[in-house]
C-alpha cells in the first residue's frame, strides 16, 4: 500500500472514547416542532428534517448539544419570518451542497452564504417560479427509502399529472417515494433477498411513513414508476384509510384483477401537460376497432389497438396551445383523456364530415355518439370509466427523430444474416462497421472543422444563433473555450453511448424513429407500410412547407426492446397520395392474419415507437418467423375487491421480489452470444421474457431462470459474460460477434477521449482580444455582480439534478446525474423527462439575464428585432420563449458593446479563478459580441494574416512539424536522416528531393515510429516512408478514388525531374497530410489488408498484415488523441539539452476483474502471476482465489493490477479468450466448462527449451479445446 499510494501509512488498533450521544432531532422534540410549525409552512419543517436525515454529516454539527440545535433552528425560523421563499431556497441549496460534497466543515456558514446569494437574486427566483407554474410544472417532495435509512430529498420539479392537478396543486400533501438498496440501485431479490425487500418496502407500504410530523400512506404509481421501484404516498393525517375515496374521484375501476387495476389507475400519475383547448362532449365520439385474425387462444387481434383520430383543425389548436411554432401541426399526439390512453392521428376526413354536416344542416342521429366531431376514440383506448371533463392531456407528439442501432438489435442483425446467407452477413457487418467509422469520424471532425462544429452547435437548444457568429465575421468556434467545451461534451456523450450500448447512428437520410399508426383508408395491404419523413432531421417543429421524402421499396422495421430473430422484419414501403397528410409516423395496414406491430415483440399502437430503416446494406434476405407465445390466463377473483389497498400492497411487494425483465433480457443477450439466437435455451428464455413483460398486468411471474444445466441444455442464468457486457465480477471472454467488435473499438476510443480531456482540465481560459472594447471598465463592477448572480442560479440548477458541468446542461448531453437517485426519465416515456426540465430551466435563466442586459437601453423588445428583421411593434407583451430566442440586436450602441465586453471579460476572468467554470454568461449578449468581432475582423482584412483554412488544428500541426524538424536539438538528426535516405533509399529520395517539406514530414514520422517502438527487424523506417508515398499516390490495394486526397504525383513514370514542388502550400499543409495518413493507417480498411505491395512507391518489397499491425494500432491511437484533444502530447516532443531519458507515463489502477481457471492449477498461481507480470510489463499484479465451483471443478480468480494504460491493456489481452460455442463438438455443456482450460492454456508459462510436459505441471486436453476453437479474428 505504501509503495502503490506513495503515502505514509500505518495500521493499528485505536480506542475511541465517544460517550456523547445526539440530542433529539428538531422534528421529534414536541416543543421545537410546535415552534417550527406555528409559522404555517410544512415546507420549512420538511427541509429541517431533511437535514437531519443526512446523518452524522449534519448531526455532528447541530445535534451535539441543545444549544447548537436550538440556535440553528432559531436562525432558520427568524430568516423564514423575514423572507419565506428565500429561506426555503437557501435550505434546498444547502441540501444539494451536502449531497454533492458529502462533508462540509461548517454548514452554518455555508447556509449563511447561500442565504445571502439567494437574497441577491430573489427577483429572478420569483420570476422563474412563476414561469414554471404557467408551463404546468409542479414541485413535489421526494423520499428515498433504503434498508438502513430514510433520505428526504429536495423537492423535484416535474410536469404535473392528473392526480396532482386534482388533489394537490401545491405539492404539500404528496410524496414521491423511491425504494433503493444502499448502493442507490433498485432493490433486487438476487442481491438483497426477500427479507430485506419485505422489511424495507412492506413496512413503508403497510404502515405508512411519517415525515416532518405528517403521516403519509401508499396510494399508487404509474407503470414506469413501479418498474423503477417508485410510487406516490398521500397525507392521511386526521382520516382513516381514504384511498378508496380518492380513487373514486378518478373513475370506476374493475378491481377483480389487481395488477390490471393498478396499471389503469397508474394513468393518473403519468406526467402530461394539460391542454387549454377544451374538448366538449359534443366534440368526440367512439368508433369501432379494426379486428381480424386469431391468436393462439382463438381471440381476434385488434389492429387498431390504441389509435384514435383527430381533425386537422383541432390538432392546430392543440399545437398552438402547446406553443409549437405556427405552421407546424404534428401528425400524432400521445394523450390521456378521462380513462382513455393512446394516440390520436390526424385524419382530414373528420373535418370533411363536419363541413358536410354544417353545410347541409344535418341533425345528429345519436347525440351521445355524434358524427360531426373533432376526435374519434376507439374502445381499445378506454381503460376505465372516468368522470366527465373537457381537458385533454398531452404526453408527447410526433417530430423528426434520428435512430441508432443497439446491442439487442445488432445481435439480431448479426445472427439472422449469418443464418440466412454468408454474403449478406459480410455485407451487413461491413456496413455496420462503416456506420461506426462514419460516426467516429464525424465526432473528430466536429471538434476540429468549423463547418461540422457549427452544424453540431446549431442542433443544440436554441439560445445562441451560431449562424450569426459566422466565420466570415472572424469567429473560430472550434478554438473558442465555451463553444469548444460544448463540442467536447457532445462528443463525450455520444461516445459513451456507443461504448455502453453500442448505439451506432444510422444517417437520418436512411433511417428514422417514429410513432406507429393504422391505415384509416384501408388501401395498404398486408406486408406494406407508408412512411413520409421530414428531410431536415434538425427541424423539430417542421411547417407544412418543409421538405419531405416519401420512402419507397424495401424497408426494415423493428421496435424497442427487441429480443428474438422475428422481432425485426422486412416490409415494402409504398406511396399512397391518400396518406400524404401523415408525416414522421409509420403507417401499418389494417389487413392480414396478424397485426404487423404485434409480430414485433408483441407491440401495439398506443404510443409505441418504431425504428424504420431503408439502408439496403442492413436488410435481411427474408423474415424469420415471429414468436407468438400464449398469454397467461388470469382468473378474476371477485373477492379481491373487498380489500383493494392490501391487495395492491401485496402485489407491489411481489412485483419487486419477482421483477426480472432486465435480468432475463441480459441473459438472452449473453446466452445467444454463446449458443446462438435460435438455440433451444434462448427460445426458453424468450418465453420467460414474454411472461415477465406481461407480469405487471397479469400478476403471473415467469419461472426463475435455471442456474444449472437441465435436460441437455445449459443454464439460462449465465455465469460467464462476453466482454461487451462489462461484467468484471464474473469470468468474461472476448466475443467474436459484431457486438464485441464494436464494443472493443468504442472502448479504445473512449479511453483516448478521456485521457485527452483530462489533459485540458487545468488549462487556463484565454479570452479573445478582439472582444475587449475600450471603455468596458465602466461596466466591469456590475458585470462581476451579475456574473456571480448568474453563476449561483446555474449552480442551483446543476446541484439540484446532480449534473457535473455547465456544458452538459447547456447542450443537453448529460452523461450522468451524480449523487442522485432519479426516475424522471422513465416516466411512461413522457417527453417531460429530466433533459426537458433542465433545458427549460436553463433557457429561462439565460433569457432572464439577456433581458437584464438590455434593460438600461430601453428593454429587450425595443433593442432587438426578430431574425427576419421585421419590425417588433407587434410583439406581444408575453411573447413565447421560443420567439424571444429568435431575436437579436441588429445595431448595438457603443455602450452596449462596452457592457457586452465587460460581461465577457468578467466571465472568463472569474472562470480562471474558480474550480467550476461557468462560461455561458460571457455569451448572453452574443449578438452584440458578434458585431464587435465583425468590426475588428474587417479592420484586419487586407493585412498579411494567413488565410484561414477552416481547420485550425491542421494549421497548428503544420507549424509544429516545421518547428520540430528545425529545432536546434534535432538539427543533426534531421540532416542525418536526409543523408541516409539519399544514400540508401533512392526511390524515396526522389520524392523527398522533389517535394519541399516532405523531409520534415518524414522526420516527424521517424521520431513518432521510434517513440512507439515500431522500428524493428521486419519493419524499417523506409517501409513507413513507402507507405506514406502510397498514401500520397492513392495506390493502396483499395483505392480512395478521390483526386482531392492525392498529394503526390507518380515520379516513377517520369525520367526527368519536373522541377521543385511543395506540399507546404496545400490546404492544411503538413498537418492535414499527417492526420489523413494516421487516419488511414488506423482504419478498418487498412487493417483488412493481408498483403501490401510497395511497387507503386518504387520498391520491390511487400508487407504482410502481421508486420504493420502495431503500426496501425499506434496510428489509430495517435490520430484520435490529436483530433479529440487538439494537442500534440502523443507526438514526439522537443527535448531540453539535458533532459533525462526515463519513462514518465502515468500509472493507472485497473478495475479488478475475474477469470476462471481449472481447480488443479491452484498451486501454480504464483508462477502464472509472475509470468503475466513479465509479459505485460505491469508494475504490480495480484491474483486471488475468489471461490470454487465444484460442479465444473474450476476456480474463480480475481485479478488486480497497476501499470501504464498500455501494460494494463496488454494484461487483459493475455487473459482474453475467443470461444465459439456455436460450431464443433456435439454437446455445448462440456464445451462451456472447457473455457477455464482455454484461459489456462493461454496464460500458463511456456518454456521454449522444455517439452510440453515439463512446461506445465498439468497437461491440457487440446483435442477437447479444439472443439471450441478460438473464434476467427475481426
UniProtKB/TrEMBL annotation:
**Record keywords:** Nucleotidyltransferase, RNA-binding, RNA-directed RNA polymerase, RNA-mediated gene silencing, Transferase
* Domain called RDRP core: residue spans: 145-745
Looking up Pfam families in the UniProt record yields: DUF7636, DUF7752, RdRP, RdRP_head
| Enzyme Commission number | 2.7.7.48
Q: Which reaction does it catalyse?
A: RNA(n) + a ribonucleoside 5'-triphosphate = RNA(n+1) + diphosphate
The record's comment on protein family reads: Belongs to the RdRP family.
Q: Check the UniProt entry and state the signal peptide residues, or none.
A: none
Q: Which residues does the UniProt record annotate as the domain DUF7636?
A: 1147-1244
Q: Which domain of life is it from?
A: Eukaryota
Q: Which residues cross the membrane?
A: none
Q: Which InterPro entries match?
A: DUF7636, DUF7752, RDRP, RDRP_C_head, RDRP_core
One annotated GO molecular function is:
RNA-directed RNA polymerase activity
Tell me the Gene Ontology biological-process terms attached to this UniProt entry. Answer: siRNA processing
Does the record's keyword annotation contain RNA-binding?
yes
| Start and end residues of each RDRP C-terminal head domain | 768-941
The protein in question is named RNA-dependent RNA polymerase
Q: Would you tell me the Gene Ontology cellular component terms?
A: nuclear RNA-directed RNA polymerase complex
First-tier enzyme category under EC: transferase
Give start and end of each DUF7752 domain. 991-1092
Amino acid at each position: 500500500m505504501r509503495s502503490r499510494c506513495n503515502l505514509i501509512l500505518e495500521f493499528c488498533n485505536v480506542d475511541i472514547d465517544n460517550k456523547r450521544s445526539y440530542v433529539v432531532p428538531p422534528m421529534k422534540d414536541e416543543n421545537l416542532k410546535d415552534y417550527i410549525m406555528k409559522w404555517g409552512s410544512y415546507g420549512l419543517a420538511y427541509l429541517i428534517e431533511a437535514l437531519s436525515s443526512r446523518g452524522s454529516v449534519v448531526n455532528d454539527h447541530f445535534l451535539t448539544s441543545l444549544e447548537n440545535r436550538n440556535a440553528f433552528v432559531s436562525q432558520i425560523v427568524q430568516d423564514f419570518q423575514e423572507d419565506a421563499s428565500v429561506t426555503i431556497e437557501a435550505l434546498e441549496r444547502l441540501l444539494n451542497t451536502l449531497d454533492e460534497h458529502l462533508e462540509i466543515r461548517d454548514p452554518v456558514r455555508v447556509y449563511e452564504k447561500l442565504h445571502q446569494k439567494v437574497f441577491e437574486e430573489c427577483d429572478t427566483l420569483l420570476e422563474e417560479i412563476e414561469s414554471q407554474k404557467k408551463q404546468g410544472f409542479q414541485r413535489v417532495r421526494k423520499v428515498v427509502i433504503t434498508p438502513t435509512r430514510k433520505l428526504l430529498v429536495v423537492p423535484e420539479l416535474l410536469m404535473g399529472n392528473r392526480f396532482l392537478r386534482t388533489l394537490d396543486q401545491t405539492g404539500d400533501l404528496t410524496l414521491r417515494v423511491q425504494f433503493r438498496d444502499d448502493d442507490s440501485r433498485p432493490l433486487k431479490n438476487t442481491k438483497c433477498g426477500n427479507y430485506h425487500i419485505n422489511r424495507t418496502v412492506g413496512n413503508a407500504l403497510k404502515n405508512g411513513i411519517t415525515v416532518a410530523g405528517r403521516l403519509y400512506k401508499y396510494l399508487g404509481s404509474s407503470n414506469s414508476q413501479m418498474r423503477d421501484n417508485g410510487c406516490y404516498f398521500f397525507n392521511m393525517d386526521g382520516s382513516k384509510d381514504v384511498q378508496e375515496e380518492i380513487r373514486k374521484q378518478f373513475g370506476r375501476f374493475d378491481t377483480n384483477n389487481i395488477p390490471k387495476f393498478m396499471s389503469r389507475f397508474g394513468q393518473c400519475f403519468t406526467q402530461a401537460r394539460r391542454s387549454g383547448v377544451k374538448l366538449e362532449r359534443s366534440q368526440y365520439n367512439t368508433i369501432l376497432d379494426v379486428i381480424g385474425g386469431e391468436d393462439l387462444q382463438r381471440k381476434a387481434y385488434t389492429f387498431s389497438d390504441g389509435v384514435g383520430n383527430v381533425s386537422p383543425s383541432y390538432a392546430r389548436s392543440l399545437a398552438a396551445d402547446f406553443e409549437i411554432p405556427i405552421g407546424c401541426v404534428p401528425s400524432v399526439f400521445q394523450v390521456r383523456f378521462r380513462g382513455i390512453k393512446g394516440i390520436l392521428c390526424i385524419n382530414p376526413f373528420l373535418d370533411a364530415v363536419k363541413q358536410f354536416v354544417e353545410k347541409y344542416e344535418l341533425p345528429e342521429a345519436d347525440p351521445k355518439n355524434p358524427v360531426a366531431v373533432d376526435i374519434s376514440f376507439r374502445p381499445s383506448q378506454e381503460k376505465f370509466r372516468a368522470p366527465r371533463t373537457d381537458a385533454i392531456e398531452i404526453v408527447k407528439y410526433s417530430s423528426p427523430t434520428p435512430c441508432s442501432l443497439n446491442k439487442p438489435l445488432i445481435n439480431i442483425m448479426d445472427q439472422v444474416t449469418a443464418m440466412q446467407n454468408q454474403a449478406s452477413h459480410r455485407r451487413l457487418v461491413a456496413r455496420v462497421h462503416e456506420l461506426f467509422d462514419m460516426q467516429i469520424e464525424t465526432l473528430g471532425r466536429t471538434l476540429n472543422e468549423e463547418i461540422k462544429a457549427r452544424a453540431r452547435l446549431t442542433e443544440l437548444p436554441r439560445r445562441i444563433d451560431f449562424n450569426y457568429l459566422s466565420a466570415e465575421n472572424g469567429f473560430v468556434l472550434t478554438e473558442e473555450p465555451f463553444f469548444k467545451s460544448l463540442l467536447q461534451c457532445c462528443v463525450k456523450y455520444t461516445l459513451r453511448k456507443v461504448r455502453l450500448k453500442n448505439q451506432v447512428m444510422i444517417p437520418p437520410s436512411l433511417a428514422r424513429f417514429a410513432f406507429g399508426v393504422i391505415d384509416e383508408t384501408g388501401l395498404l395491404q398486408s406486408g406494406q407500410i407508408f412512411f413520409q419523413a421530414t428531410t431536415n432531421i434538425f427541424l423539430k417543429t417542421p411547417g407544412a412547407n418543409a421538405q419531405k421524402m416519401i420512402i419507397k421499396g424495401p424497408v426494415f422495421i423493428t421496435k424497442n426492446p427487441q429480443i428474438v430473430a422475428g422481432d425485426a422484419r422486412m416490409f415494402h414501403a409504398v406511396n399512397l397520395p391518400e396518406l400524404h397528410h401523415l408525416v414522421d409516423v409509420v403507417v401499418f395496414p389494417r389487413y392480414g392474419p396478424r397485426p404487423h406491430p404485434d409480430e414485433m415483440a408483441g407491440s401495439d399502437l398506443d404510443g409505441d415507437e418504431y425504428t424504420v430503416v431503408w439502408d439496403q446494406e442492413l436488410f435481411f434476405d427474408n423474415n424469420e418467423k415471429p414468436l407468438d407465445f400464449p398469454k397467461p390466463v388470469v382468473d378474476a377473483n371477485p373477492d379481491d375487491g373487498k380489500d383493494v389497498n392490501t391487495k395492491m400492497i401485496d402485489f407491489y411487494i411481489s412485483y419487486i421480489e419477482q421483477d426480472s425483465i432486465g435480468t432475463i433480457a441480459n441473459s438472452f443477450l449473453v446466452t445467444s452470444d454463446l449458443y446462438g439466437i435460435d438455440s433451444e435455451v434462448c427460445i426458453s428464455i424468450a418465453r420467460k421474457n414474454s411472461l415477465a413483460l406481461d407480469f405487471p398486468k397479469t400478476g403471473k411471474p415467469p419461472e426463475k431462470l435455471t442456474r444449472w444445466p437441465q435436460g441437455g441444455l445449459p443454464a439460462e442464468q449465465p455465469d460467464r459474460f462476453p466482454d461487451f457486457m462489462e461484467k468484471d465480477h464474473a469470468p468474461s471472454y472476448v466475443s467474436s460477434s459484431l457486438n464485441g467488435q464494436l464494443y472493443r473499438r468504442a472502448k479504445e476510443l473512449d479511453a483516448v477521449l478521456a485521457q485527452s480531456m483530462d489533459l485540458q482540465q487545468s488549462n487556463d481560459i484565454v479570452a479573445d482580444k478582439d472582444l475587449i472594447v475600450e471603455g468596458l471598465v465602466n461596466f466591469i463592477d456590475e458585470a462581476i455582480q451579475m456574473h456571480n448572480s448568474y453563476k449561483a442560479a446555474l449552480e442551483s440548477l446543476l446541484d439540484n439534478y446532480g449534473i457535473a458541468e455547465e456544458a452538459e446542461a447547456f447542450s443537453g448531453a448529460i452523461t450522468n446525474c451524480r449523487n442522485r437517485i432519479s426516475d424522471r426519465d422513465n416516466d411512461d416515456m413522457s417527453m417531460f423527462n429530466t433533459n426537458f426540465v433542465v433545458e427549460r430551466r436553463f433557457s429561462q435563466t439565460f433569457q432572464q439575464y439577456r433581458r437584464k442586459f438590455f434593460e438600461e437601453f430601453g428593454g429587450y423588445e425595443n433593442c432587438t428585432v426578430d431574425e427576419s428583421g421585421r419590425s417588433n411593434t407587434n410583439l406581444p407583451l408575453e411573447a413565447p420563449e421560443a420567439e424571444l430566442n429568435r431575436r437579436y440586436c441588429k445595431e448595438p450602441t457603443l455602450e452596449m458593446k462596452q457592457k457586452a465586453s465587460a460581461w465577457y471579460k468578467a466571465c472568463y476572468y472569474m472562470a480562471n479563478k474558480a474550480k467550476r467554470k461557468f462560461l455561458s454568461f460571457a455569451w448572453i449578449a452574443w449578438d452584440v459580441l458578434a458585431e464587435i468581432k465583425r468590426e475588428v475582423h474587417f479592420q484586419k482584412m487586407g493585412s498579411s494574416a494567413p488565410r484561414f483554412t477552416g481547420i485550425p488544428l491542421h494549421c497548428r500541426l503544420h507549424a509544429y512539424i516545421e518547428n520540430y524538424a528545425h529545432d536546434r536539438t534535432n538539427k543533426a538528426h534531421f540532416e542525418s536522416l536526409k543523408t541516409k535516405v539519399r544514400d540508401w533509399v533512392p526511390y524515396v529520395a526522389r520524392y523527398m528531393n522533389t517535394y519541399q517539406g516532405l523531409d520534415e514530414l518524414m522526420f516527424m514520422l521517424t521520431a513518432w515510429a521510434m517513440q512507439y517502438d515500431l522500428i524493428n527487424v521486419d519493419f524499417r523506417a523506409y517501409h513507413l516512408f513507402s507507405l506514406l508515398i502510397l498514401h500520397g499516390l492513392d495506390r493502396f490495394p483499395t483505392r480512395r478514388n478521390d483526386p482531392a486526397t492525392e498529394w503526390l504525383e507518380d515520379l516513377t513514370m517520369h525520367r526527368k525531374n519536373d522541377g521543385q514542388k511543395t506540399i507546404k502550400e496545400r490546404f492544411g499543409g503538413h498537418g492535414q497530410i499527417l492526420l489523413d495518413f494516421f487516419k488511414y493507417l488506423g482504419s478498418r480498411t487498412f487493417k483488412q489488408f493481408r498483403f501490401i505491395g510497395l511497387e507503386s512507391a518504387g520498391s520491390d518489397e511487400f508487407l504482410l498484415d502481421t508486420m504493420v499491425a502495431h503500426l496501425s494500432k499506434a496510428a489509430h491511437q495517435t490520430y484520435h488523441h490529436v483530433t479529440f484533444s487538439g494537442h500534440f502530447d502523443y507526438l514526439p516532443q522537443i527535448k531540453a539539452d539535458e533532459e533525462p531519458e526515463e519513462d514518465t507515463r502515468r500509472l493507472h489502477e485497473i478495475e479488478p476483474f475475474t477469470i476462471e481457471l481449472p481447480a488443479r492449477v491452484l498451486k501454480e498461481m504464483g508462477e502464472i502471476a509472475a509470468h503475466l507480470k513479465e509479459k505485460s510489463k505491469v508494475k504490480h499484479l495480484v491474483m486471488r482465489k475468489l471461490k470454487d465451483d465444484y460442479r465444473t471443478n474450476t476456480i474463480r480468480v480475481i485479478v488486480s493490477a497497476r501499470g501504464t494504460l498500455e501494460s494494463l491493456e496488454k494484461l487483459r489481452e493475455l487473459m482474453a479468450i475467443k470461444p465459439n460455442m456455436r460450431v464443433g463438438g456435439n454437446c455445448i455443456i462440456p464445451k462451456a466448462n472447457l473455457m477455464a482450460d482455454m484461459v489456462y492454456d493461454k496464460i500458463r508459462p511456456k518454456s521454449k527449451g522444455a517439452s510440453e510436459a515439463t512446461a506445465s505441471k498439468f497437461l491440457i486436453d487440446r483435442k477437447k479445446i479444439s472443439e471450441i476453437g478460438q473464434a476467427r479474428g475481426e
